[in-house]
Design goal:
The chain is an all-alpha fold. It has helices spanning 4-18, 35-56. The chain is built from two helices and no strands.
Amino acid sequence: MNRAPYKIVAVLALLPLASCVTVKTPEKPIEINLNVKIEQEVLVRLQRDVDTLIKSNPDAFPTKPSGNPQ
């Protein structure tokens, strides 16, 4: 059985659908928000500064309670 006529009919039936696809550029510019990354960098830097400050002044920031606990 020859299937060539069916293939031609299928192609001709789908041909009008090919012209329906359109690609448009957006009217508004694409905005990428990078605040999360910037905040993380600031927090890491602040944490390093605090660690350095605590290590350089151990009496100001005791890690063990002083005196007699009651």
